[in-house]
Amino acid sequence: MKKLLATIGFLAAIIGGGFFAYETFRHKPVHGIIVLDYDKQKIDNKLAKLDKDAKKVQVEGKWQDDNHLLVLSKEEAEKLTTLKALNKVTTKKDTFLFEPLLQLPDQLPLLFSKDSAITITDDTGAIVTPKQTEYVVLGDSSMFVSHILVTDAADYQKFQTAPTIHVAAIRSDEDASKAITDYKDLKIQQMYNPDNQ
Fold it and tell me: The whole model's pTM is what?
C-alpha cells in the first residue's frame, strides 16, 4: 500500500511539474483580439467593459460573406495599422512570419490576400481589379477574413448593398487566450499578437 501511495504521489508530482513547466516556458500569451460583428452596439458594449489601459480601434467596412471579403476604405484600413492589426505574411521553410504593416501602399484598389486570383465584384456586378496584391492578413490569420480590399472613398461607395460590418482591434495586458471567451457572442473573434516584431 505504501508503494502505491508513493507511486501516486510521484506521478502527481511529475504531472504537476510538467503542467507548471508548460505554463511557465511554453505558453506565450498574446495580448490582442480582433472582433467583427454586424451590430455595432454589441461591440461598443464589449469595449466599454475594457480596463482603462486597453488600447482599441474601431472601423467600419463592408462584408461579402460568400468569399469572406472585408472591404475597407483607405482611411479605415489605416486605423488598423495603429494597433498592428494588419500583418504582412512571409514564409521561411514551414514557418509563417508576421510583420506589422505600418503604412498602406498608395496604389488603390489594393487586395490583401494569399489568393490573387479571387474575383471581386461591386454592387453593379463590375469586376474590381486590384492594382496591387499583397499577402497581408487581419491579425495573425486568414481563417475568418480571407481577403481584404482597400479602396478609395469613391470606390468604397460602390459596395453599399453589402452588409456593413464593424471591426474592433483590442490591445490589452490581459492574456487573449483567456479573454477571448468574453467575445463569443460576436460573429468573428480571433486572437492576434500586436507585439510581433
Answer: 0.82
